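re: that chain from earlier
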Amino acid sequence: VAGVRVKVAMKRHLFGFGSAVDVEMLSGLGGGLTRADEMRYREVADELFSRLVPENGLRVGNIDGDTDPAKPWEETMRRRAGTAVQWMMQWAQDRRMTTRGHYLCWGYLEPWAAEEVRKGGAAGLLARYDRHFRHVLPFCAPYVDEWDALNHPVPFVEADALYRVIGPDAYPEIYGRIRPLTDKLLFVNEDAFSEERTDAFEGHVKHMIGKGQTPDGCGFQSHFSDAAIRGIEEEWGIYERFGRLVKLLTVTEYDLATVDDQLHADHLRDMLTLCYSHPQMTGFVIWGFWESRHWKPTAAMFKADWTERPAVKVWRDLVKTKWWTREELTSGADGKVVTPGYYGWYDITVERDGKTKTVEAKHAGDGSAVTVTAP
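^ sequence. v structure.
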C-alpha cells in the first residue's frame, strides 16, 4: 500500500549495554531499603540497559543443588536466592533484555573450594563443580545467552591456582566438562590492567586452544581507578590481540573508581565508543550503577540519593540517542520503506486513514524484512 505513514521506534538494543545488578534489590527481597529505592533501582535498570548480570546470584554456593545436613538454614537461603535470580531473569526477558551468566568456575581456590580439596582432593573439587554445572546450566538455559565459563584464570596468589591443585590442564579440562552441557556462548574472563597480567591471560587462552578447547570468547573485566588507567590505544591493541585468538570479545565488569566527575564521564565515553566500534564485541557491562549497591562506591554512576553523575548523561547521549533508531517514513509505490537501524527490538507502527497498527520486530542483521498489514 503506497502513502502509508510508518514509524520505526527502537526500544531495546541487542548489543549488551548492561550492568551487574543486586538480585535481591531488583526482586524486592533486599531488606533494609525503602520501597522508593527499590522502585528507582528497577526504573534505572529498565531505562538504561539491554543486558543484566546477577552479580553474585549464580556463583557456586549461592545457587545450587548441594545441601549440608549440618547447615539446614543454607538450603532455605539457596531456595530464596534461586527464586530471586529466576524472578530477575524473567523480569529482564519480559523487557527484551538478555542475561549474562557470571560465573561457572573461578580460576583459583575460594574458601568453599579449598574445603572441597581438603575433603576430597582434586577429584572432590571437580565433582563439586560438575554438580554445580548440571544444576545451574539447565536452570538458566531459558534466559542466559553467554557465560563467564572460567573467571580469573590468572590467580592473584599462585599457590591457590586451580592448575596447582588439579594439574596444568585444569582450565581446558573444566571448559571441556562445561561445553557438552550447554549451547550458550562460553567466555574466559580476566582483567588486563597490566602487561604481566595480559600476557598471562593470553598464555592460558593459547594453552586451552592447544588442548582443543578454544573459548567462544574472551571477556575483559576492565576495573580501573584514577591511579590506574591504560590508554585507549592500548585497550584497542588488547582487543585486537585477543580477537586473533577467539571469535568474540566483551567488556564484562567495567568501572572507574574516582571522585573526579569529568574523568569518570570522559573515560566511560571513550570506553563505550571503543567497545561498540569493535566488530567482535558482544557487549559492554558496568559492574553496578548505584552507590549504595556498588563494590566501589566512587565508581557508581548514581549517588546514594540518586543524584546523577555526568557519566549518566554520557550513557544516555550515546546508548539511547546517538546509537538509537527512530524514523518516520512513508511507503513508496511498492508499499515498502527501507531504513538502516541499530540491531535490537523495535515497535513498527503503520497509520492509514486515521487507524494504526503496531507490530514488534527483532532486527538482528539477518537481512529479513518485516511485513505489516495496514489497517
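The chain has a mean pLDDT of 94.
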